[in-house]
Each structure stands twice: as C-alpha cells, then as structure tokens.
User: Fold this.
Amino acid sequence: MKNVLMLTKYFYPFNCMATQRTAKLAKYLPEYGWNPIIVCPKWTAKNCIHFDPQMVDELKKYNVVKFVTFKGASWSTPMKKLVSIISIIATPKIFVTKAISKIAPTLSARKYPVEFYYESIPFLRTFLRSNKIDCVWATYPPPVTHTIADWINKTFGIPWIGDFRDIPDQKHKYGQSDRLREYRIKVEPVTLASSSAIVTVSEGLKEVLQKRHKVPVYVIPNGFDPSDYTDGQPQKQEVFSIVYTGSVTFPIRNPIPLFEALETLISDRRIKPEEISVSFYGTPPELIKRLLQNFKNLYNVVQLFPLVPFTKSIAIQKQACILLHLAHIGERGILTGKLFEYFGARRPILCIPGDNDCVDALLEQTKAGVVCRNAAETAAQLLRWYKEWKQTGTVSYYGREEEIMKYSRKEQARDLAKLLDQISIKSCQIT
Assistant:
C-alpha cells in the first residue's frame, strides 16, 4: 500500500465542511490502495470555536502523525487573551510573523496560520527522512499547506496535489482585504508550479484555476458519506418544517425571498403560522433578527439555534419537510458541501434564488430539489408542498438515487486514488 501525506488545517474534532472533505477521503482511500498519514492541528474545546466532542472518537481512527499546537484561537475572557499573547511572544518566529502580518499582511500571507507552518516544517524534515511518502495532498487553507507541500517537493522530491475548496477570487471570501486577495492570486502560480496536479470542487473554479496554472486541474466535488445517514427514516412531521444548517453570509446567501414568500402566504391566510417553522442552525442570530425586522408575521415562525454536533445536524436534516439552500447568484462554481449533505438526508431541497450555473444543473441532474428565482416562485412552491404536508403529514422526495450516489465520499476517494496512482507512477518514471 502506498502512503499519502495529507496536510490540513481542519480535521476532527473541528466541526466544519473542510474537515469532512479531508476526513472522508482519508476514510475510504485505503480501499483503493492508499494509506493516509495526516498532519493537522490539535483542536480542543479551548482553542476551537466549532469543537464537536462527538468527533473526538472519530479522530482515533486516523493515523495522525503530527498534531500542531494551536494557542489562543478562541478568546472568551481577557485572561485567556493575555495567556495567548504571552505564549505567542514565547515563540519568537510566530511572534515576529504575526507582528509583521499586522503591518503588512502580504508579507506573511503564505505562512498563515503561522503555528501550522513553524511547527510542521521541523517535524516533517525529520519524519520524511525515515518514512516513505509517495505523494502529498495539501488542502484548506491553501496558503500555508501549499507552501509546506512546495517545500517538501523541493527538499525531498515528493510529488504533491494542491486542493482548493475555495479560491481567493470568490466574492464570499469577504474576510480578506482586496490587497491580500490580489497577493494570493499573484503568488499562487509560484507556489503551485512545483505541484503535479490541482484539484478543486467544481467546473467553474476549475476554469479559473486553469487560466493561471500550467499543471493539470481536476474536479473532485464535495460529497456525503452514506454511512452517516443509516439511522432512522423520516417520520410524519407535526409542523411544516423548513431547515437551514450552516452559515448565512448575507448578502451572498440571501434568505429574504423566503421571508417575503412566507409573509405573503401568512398574510393571505393560505398558511397558518402555527403550522410552519423555519429553523436556522449555526447562523449568527443577530443577522437573521435584523433581516426579519420588516416581517412581523414571522417572529414566531423563524427559530434560531446554535451550531449543533455533526451527527445531530444530520438527524435534523433527515426529519425536515424541506431543506433550504441559498445559492450564490451571479457567481460561477460555488458548489458548497452543504448541498451534498442535503443529498444524504434525502429530503426535498428548496434552492433560492438559483445560480444559473452548477447548483441549478446539479439539482436538475439529481431531481433532489427545485430552484425558485424570486419570492413569487418561492411562495407558489411552498404552497404546493404545504398542501401535500396537510394531506399526508410529509413531503415527497423524488431524488434520483443513481445520480445522487455519484457524489458519495467513497466514489470521490476512488477518483482521488486514481489521480494519486497516476502521479506516483509518473514520479517513479522520472526518477
């Protein structure tokens, strides 16, 4: 069996989509001849804002050879913040790099997060001298993992694949300045020049990456693990329930057409407010409350909940009447992992407002849901589903199983293994 070194910032027990991509691929790679060896942070309840205690046992199933120590990622009190600052100062390289990043962010952008970079390099210098690695998979976030993989290739000659769940061009990467975005786009070809291949999650992102890279670009989309969805079958729902699990990054993801549709249906007395619920899990409540200010009929309809453990999120999705997906209108290639989780739940998907791109095409291919372009279309579709729920206690699901199963994590691990085989064979021929 060949060995693939997987570099990732997000891994169990950090509850996010980036974690699931790496972990699920690693879960199934051994079935196709590849042994995953993982370098990732040591996430704890103290340093992880999305710590999932139920994922701790899952972590034990993986071969993690290096836990990078993260300090002070979550500051809940002034004392914890002070302790974090002291610990950073005690590590000169980390302190200097973080200080530079405050003055000139682009100078340290390729080493962000700096703890990952400065703890991984010394470990890997020793580890790779005594352990055979056939290929490296470097994933989210690209600046640091790709920089480390580039160093591995130049130091040890090991081929590597750069994985992009997102690219810096995307509009919803709102957390970075325009200057930093431009810098990352500029240096990306320099770092990736030593890679053997690039992988991303959609054809739209592939097209962007192909324009600025000379290495081949492949698509391995996000997906779902069928084994996560084995317990229980959907029951008759006491209320007509619409569920959204994840973050609402307004205005890129905009629930207002849904609110407008429901406000109209309730005002016209075509839907009884006590018979419907709209639940948001993991979205900042302040945002949704602000968006609801002009929708007086929805105050008791919309319910806000914090982020829940991954297994509970799946259970909630499976018991919903409708699953809400907020597409990125006017932006190509945004095929988020949440949509594939919804595939696993096998409940009808309401997509608002559609993207005229990959999400629309995928829902048409799988028949897993419908796209509504505006509030009027949304109201009409909701009324049809509501009437069905009134008659049957549930809403029918018409997803095409043979199409949906193309997006299982096992299928994607098989595709990745084929690419790893291709790269490792080519590398052996060159050497």
Observations:
- The radius of gyration is 23 Å.
- The longest strand covers residues 34-42.
- The chain has two domains: 2-223+409-430, 226-407.
- The CA atoms of residues 323 and 349 lie 5 Å apart.
